[in-house]
């Protein structure tokens, strides 16, 4: 059963209340340039009259000084209008002090926007509108066995423009959560069937993926302390007591959806930062921090399975001359071309990183000494046979092959695995040094005796 309130995002409707005609025109122009539908007013009373009548908006922007009332007075009266309790009301001010910002937020404004030059204000207004559109696009899964309650909920949420999907049973809700992304679950705690609302809550919270933190708003018919505590204990973010109050429901739903959006934004940024932390900006290859993370895992796997593991160090020959003769930019291009060349020669199970400067490290599982030596030669030839960024260059390679004794069931500790990785890299580096000493453009391979340890 689906009750859809809205799907395509309509323009965000903004009430702009500012006594200063010139300033108002600037903000109005910026908002309209972003596609907003703007209703501008110079007086508070004028705006309140329109909003108490037919005018419906998604967000209100108000300047601090109005001819007929203060911004706080306007806010108080806006909150009393139908639907006004959840309306985002943004104060726009030229006063940048932290104390003003805090007192405005404490006073009930949703945000405080600093009045600045248009080019500085524009991105803030764009972000404000984007947040509003995001909220309108929210999808809510309503799990409610009473058709009357479901209809009342859909009606109460309609002004928010969110999409409400209704299912009757908890198990249907679990199926829908598998199929589609939702921003909030509203669940009646008492549901017929094997899985109750509380059971659904526990099922969501015990998931091992991001959905475990999906906001859940619980409906209860009993305003009873023990039941409220139980709902919160099981992980409900908030609850509403039946019969529902439309304004209260909208306010709680908006808050939870905002929280979820923020959480997702933080997660995305965190994932990006984690990627950046292990990525070398010049070549796009992973950096040595990824080796520190993945290397011990490969060591433990090799140890467990008695499979060989090879570490290789590859270093361009006379790279300093490239920089000196052709400039640092050309040197960078060479490193990028080299990274691409190496990428073409690694298998999905191999780890390739830029170890630093013009040195690259590889970890290659399951190659015996002869195959590892042949592979090192192939890499050396791959560098020498074609120019890199237009320059004929060579590389030297040091490789160290570790063949663990088959010890089924034995597992290395994390510290041991790290020590073995270091030992392998030191051994490979030693081989590289020998390759350089022997005239460069060659590979030197050594089979580790015993367990390599740094
Ligand atoms: N363009 C560029 N140069 C770098 C980068 N990182 C390190 N280098 C340069 O790489 C050069 C390494 O020089 P050396 O360690 O003397 O080694 P080499 O000239 O390659 O000599 P051998 O290794 O002995 O054959 C130095 O000039 C560094 O400045 C980088 O990201 N970009």
From TrEMBL:
Tell me the residues on which 4-aspartylphosphate occurs: 188
Under SUPFAM superfamilies, the record lists: CheY-like, Nucleotide cyclase
* A GO BP annotation: negative regulation of bacterial-type flagellum-dependent cell motility
Please list the reactions this protein catalyses.
2 GTP = 3',3'-c-di-GMP + 2 diphosphate
Superkingdom as given in the UniProt entry: Bacteria
Gene3D superfamilies assigned to the protein according to its UniProt record, in alphabetical order? 3.30.70.270, 3.40.50.2300
Q: Alphabetically list the UniProt keywords.
A: Phosphoprotein
**Residue span, GGDEF domain:** 307-448
Note one Pfam family from the annotation: GGDEF
Q: Which EC number applies? A: 2.7.7.65
Q: Which residues form the Response regulatory domain?
A: 13-129, 139-257
By its UniProt entry, which SMART domains does this protein fall under? GGDEF, REC
Alphabetical GO CC annotations of the entry are: plasma membrane
Q: Which GO terms describe its molecular function?
A: diguanylate cyclase activity
Return the protein name: diguanylate cyclase
Gene label: pleD_2
């Amino acid at each position: 059963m689906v009750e859809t309130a809205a799907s395509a995002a309509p323009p965000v409707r903004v009430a702009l209340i500012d006594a200063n005609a010139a300033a108002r025109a600037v903000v109005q122009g910026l908002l309209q340039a972003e596609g907003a539908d703007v209703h501008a007013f110079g007086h508070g009373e004028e705006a309140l009259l329109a909003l108490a009548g037919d005018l419906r908006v998604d967000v209100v922007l108000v300047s601090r000084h109005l001819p007929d009332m203060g911004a706080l007075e306007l806010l108080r009266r806006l909150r009393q209008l139908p639907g006004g309790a959840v309306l985002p009301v943004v104060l726009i001010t030229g006063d940048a002090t932290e104390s003003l910002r805090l007192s405005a937020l404490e006073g009930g404004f949703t945000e405080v926007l600093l009045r600045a030059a248009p080019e500085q204000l524009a991105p803030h207004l764009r972000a404000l509108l984007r947040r509003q559109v995001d909220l309108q696009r929210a999808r809510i899964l309503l799990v409610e066995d009473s058709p009357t309650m479901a209809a009342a909920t859909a009606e109460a949420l309609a002004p928010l423009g969110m999409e409400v999907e209704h299912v009757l049973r908890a198990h249907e809700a679990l199926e829908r959560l598998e199929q589609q992304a939702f921003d909030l679950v509203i669940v009646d705690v008492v549901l017929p069937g094997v899985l109750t609302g509380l059971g659904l809550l526990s099922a969501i919270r015990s998931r091992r993926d991001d959905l475990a933190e999906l906001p859940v708003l619980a409906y209860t018919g009993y305003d009873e302390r023990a039941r409220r505590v139980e709902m919160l204990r099981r992980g409900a973010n908030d609850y509403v007591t039946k019969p529902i109050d439309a304004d209260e429901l909208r306010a709680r739903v908006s808050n939870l959806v905002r929280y979820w959006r923020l959480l997702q934004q933080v997660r995305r940024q965190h994932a990006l930062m984690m990627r950046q932390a292990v990525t070398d900006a010049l070549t796009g290859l992973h950096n040595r921090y990824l080796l520190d993370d993945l290397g011990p895992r490969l060591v433990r796997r090799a140890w467990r399975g008695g499979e060989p593991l090879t570490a290789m160090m590859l270093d361009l020959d006379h790279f300093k001359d490239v920089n000196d003769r052709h400039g640092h930019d050309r040197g960078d291009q060479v490193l990028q071309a080299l990274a691409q060349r190496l990428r073409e020669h690694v298998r999905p199970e191999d780890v390739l990183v830029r170890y630093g400067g013009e040195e690259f490290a590889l970890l290659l599982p399951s190659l015996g000494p002869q195959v590892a030596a042949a592979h090192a030669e192939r890499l050396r030839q791959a560098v020498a046979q074609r120019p890199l960024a237009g320059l004929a260059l060579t590389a030297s390679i040091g490789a160290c092959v570790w063949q663990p004794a088959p010890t089924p069931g034995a597992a290395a500790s994390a510290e041991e695995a790290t020590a073995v990785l270091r030992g392998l890299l030191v051994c490979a580096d030693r081989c590289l040094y020998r390759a350089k000493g022997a005239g460069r453009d060659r590979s030197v391979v050594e089979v580790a005796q015993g367990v390599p340890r740094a």
